[in-house]
Design brief:
This protein is mostly beta strands. It starts with a strand and ends with a strand.
């Protein structure tokens, strides 16, 4: 049997291969690859997102708490492809959302060497019910929210759950032929699963029968709702599954042409691939390709001898996780696909044994923890551990989170476990679509808390290439840093290491306070994709609505959170700067309130454009019904209106009524175009009455820059409040503080012990001690770890 091995390096190799196999003339290189530099750039971005994919797992002391209480956690940030605990990210963001996906609270926590720890403080005003906790880094936002870690948090009492035994009739039966098809004349393996929508397992006891009801083969039933049937269908016949109880169900239609793809993944070192062809396809070679999340890692051309081909593949050469092997003809027709779980990661064994109570204090429990590798050697590592009186609402830990095909079964034989896990992997055939990565990195790695924003003086002039002094003050520290804006007027503040709410004051050189203080407008959103309509699905984010609870906390003190750096696209920079300036102008125009609380019709208000200022006689003509009459002879024009009988309005400038017989005192003379903020025209008799009978024909209210309180320097404009890292008290300190809360101290905390950073010694051992209440009936010990080299361990047991 002849085998051809292809080393897949780039997409060019595959393109060349497809044309090398036939007599067709290959197109010109420029036709195949019209923009080589663009392809290279897109591949570089895609490869970066694929290779540096980040994921997060949280080990929490519990998932149920009262409003105002705290939940402790240990964060493991790891690389997706290798599942090793390392990350260039230095900041972890946590969000709490209600059942309507509305934002309740946000937190930031530092990450070092792929791990972090902290406290999720639940707001006191939360209503009882389920909430969702999300954890992610800024880099993870490139992949969308489906990448975020999510866990349901129950606030208040947990609602009663219906006994799964009451829903036995709701079990869903599914069939998964290995390779995707049942082929006539070839031995086929068929996986059967039975589960409810809630994940409860059903029975698959029964047999495969033909259309006459004759038994063909007995279904081998395994634990956790999985079964396997191996049989050779005949062309033209139909088959069904006949369960031990209840009605039967038809199997997928038998195909007369195709390839079977049989996989043996029970070995810890290799995968055995066996391919068989139906009679009409025995002489046609096929391509076997292994892909993981859209990335190709293995390509091999198979030629058949007597209609069969086989191949051994080393697991060490393949990436960790769920791979899908595709069998395609040389004409790219897809014949079969088979998911396979590649597990080259070493799992640690964690054991915990209570020690002799005679050596401990009254009411104190002591437990010895021991960590070993696959060969039984002790492992020196860090662990996170909790002791809780609550019955956990979830059974699985980090091992099962990293391994979605894990089977919660009581098997000591590794081969038996791999067999069951392989059955589950086959059932994922229809649910593992090829993943597409975005073609643009919109969210760079966040190594620390950052603040990026455009800087203006109090006259709203953009400060480019200007030295800025930033003073950060909190209850515990005062930090002063010297910085400088760039050519776009953007100030970049990085390596911010503050805890809690911290006030930042910005100032520059100047003789007076109004000249020294400056204001910063944070940049809080990334630029849009460079090409219109490009990657809209991946770039658009679902807007998360802020809940009432969140808005209440923000009203007390408007907090600025860690922001994005200035977009790399210069077009985006210019647009962002213009938008910011326009927003500032709008705020400035609205700063001066209308006199006496007057609320003019919005159509009777005109604003001056500082970039293209109009003289007053032209600006007022934008108000409906207002006209300007030029009398000639060098005299000033006369402003009048034709509404409600018409007439000449009363002029009021900055609250001062202007009476003028001499044209030299006309507002058209002494108010310059640049001095005008806005003009309001009042015709309502009720509102104009405050100016007396002289306002019977209307009032023209002029607001200027120089005649109002804009000259007053508000120091708050020269600063902002920044949201730093969330304070993280240790467990003992928090429990002492908890006793001071009149509401919480009435409800005993179910967590008796929490330590996110236990260190085992050279013997792989560590000792933990905790006190138990007098009426305690038992506790649940939970221990988890993920080492920097990717070794994972999880332990959960009741005592």
């Amino acid at each position: 049997m002849t085998k051809y091995v292809l080393l897949l390096t780039t997409s060019i190799c595959l393109g060349t291969l497809s044309y090398a196999q036939g007599d067709r003339q290959a197109p010109a290189f420029s036709e195949m690859f019209p923009a080589a530099e663009m392809v290279f750039q897109d591949r570089t971005v895609t490869d970066s997102l694929a290779l540096w994919e980040e994921r997060v797992y949280l080990h929490m002391d519990r998932v149920q708490a009262e409003a105002g209480d705290a939940i402790f956690f240990k964060a493991y940030v790891y690389n997706g492809p290798t599942q090793k605990r390392f990350s260039p990210s230095g900041v972890l963001r946590l969000e709490l959302r209600d059942s309507g996906n509305e934002l309740v609270s946000t937190q930031y926590h530092p990450v070092k060497a792929g791990s972090g720890e902290g406290v999720v403080k639940l707001p006191k005003t939360l209503k009882d019910g389920p909430y969702e906790l999300l954890a992610y880094t800024r880099w993870m936002k490139n992949y969308g929210e489906q990448q975020f870690y999510r866990k349901t948090i129950q606030v208040g009492e947990t609602p009663e759950v219906q006994d799964p035994a009451e829903n036995l009739s709701d079990h869903r039966l599914e069939f998964y032929p290995e390779g995707g098809r049942l082929l006539a004349g070839i031995s086929n393996r068929l996986v059967l699963t039975s589960q409810t929508a809630d994940g409860e397992y059903g029975s698959v006891e029964g047999s495969i029968v033909d259309e006459k009801g004759l038994k063909v083969v007995e279904v081998q039933s395994y634990s956790k709702g999985y079964g396997l049937a191996i049989f050779q269908p005949e062309a033209g016949k139909t088959y069904s599954f006949k369960p031990a109880e209840g009605p039967g169900r038809a199997l997928p239609e038998i195909q007369s042409e195709g390839y079977s793809l049989r996989v043996n993944a029970l070995s810890s070192e290799k995968i055995r691939m066996e391919v068989r062809a139906t009679e009409s396809l025995k002489g046609s070679p096929v391509v076997l390709e292994g892909k993981k999340e859209g990335q190709s890692y293995f390509v091999h051309v198979l030629e058949f001898e007597d209609g069969a081909a086989s191949l051994d593949i080393s697991k060490a050469a393949l990436p960790h996780g769920l791979m899908t092997f595709y069998l395609r003809g040389m004409d790219q027709v897809a014949w079969a696909e088979r998911p396979v779980w590649i597990d080259s990661r070493e799992e640690l064994t964690i054991a915990a044994q209570p020690m002799d109570s005679r050596r401990s204090k009254a009411g104190e429990k002591v437990i010895r923890i021991k960590v070993t590798d696959a060969e039984g050697n002790p492992v020196q590592t860090d662990l996170s551990a909790s002791v809780n009186t609550q019955v956990p609402q979830y059974k699985w830990g980090i091992e099962q989170y990293l391994k979605p095909i894990a089977i919660d079964a009581e098997h000591s034989d590794d081969r038996s476990i791999r067999f069951l896990e392989d059955l589950k992997a086959q059932s994922l055939a229809s649910g593992s679509p090829e993943r597409e990565f975005p073609s643009e990195i919109r969210y760079p790695v966040e190594r620390s808390l950052e603040l990026h924003g455009t800087v203006y003086d109090f006259d709203n002039r953009l400060l480019t290439n200007t030295k800025i002094q930033m003073m950060a003050s909190s209850d515990s520290e005062l930090v002063i840093r010297e910085l400088e804006t760039d050519a776009a007027g953007v100030l970049h503040v990085q390596d911010i290491d503050v805890i809690g709410e911290t006030q930042f004051i910005f100032r520059t050189e100047g003789e007076e306070q109004s000249q020294r203080l400056v204001k910063l407008q944070p940049i809080d959103k990334p630029s849009e994709p460079k090409e219109a309509g490009a990657d809209r699905e991946s770039s658009e984010e679902e807007e998360v609505v802020e809940s009432k609870t969140y808005r209440k906390t923000q009203r007390k003190k408007e907090l600025v959170e860690s922001t994005l750096p200035e977009p790399f696209d210069t077009t985006g920079v210019i647009k962002l700067k213009e938008v910011t300036v326009e927003e500032l102008r709008r705020k400035e125009q609205e700063m001066v309130p209308s006199l006496y609380g007057i609320k003019p019709n919005r159509f009777d208000v005109v604003y001056q454009d500082p970039d293209r200022p109009l003289p007053m006689e032209r600006l007022v003509q934008k108000i409906p019904g207002v006209q300007v009459q030029w009398t000639g002879g060098g005299t000033l024009p006369v402003v009048y209106h034709n509404r409600r009988g018409g007439g000449r309005p009363l002029w009021v400038v900055d609250g001062q009524v202007i009476r003028f017989d001499d044209p030299a005192y006309s507002p058209l003379t002494f108010v310059t175009a640049l001095d005008i903020l806005r003009i309001e025209f009042i015709m309502d008799a009720g509102q104009a009455a405050v100016f007396g009978v002289q306002a019977s024909t209307g009032v023209m209210l002029v607001y200027t820059r120089s005649g109002n309180f804009l000259d007053y320097v508000n120091r708050k404009e020269g600063g902002l409040y920044f949201k730093g890292y969330e304070p993280a008290p240790d467990f003992e300190t928090y429990m002492a503080e908890r006793q001071k809360d009149r509401k919480l101290r009435k409800i005993p905390s179910p967590t008796l012990y929490w330590n996110p950073s236990i260190q085992t010694d050279t013997r792989g051992e560590a000792i933990i001690r905790f006190s138990t209440p007098e009426d305690f009936e038992g506790v649940v010990l939970s221990i988890e770890t993920l080492t920097p080299d990717g070794r994972v361990g999880s332990f959960r047991k009741s005592y």
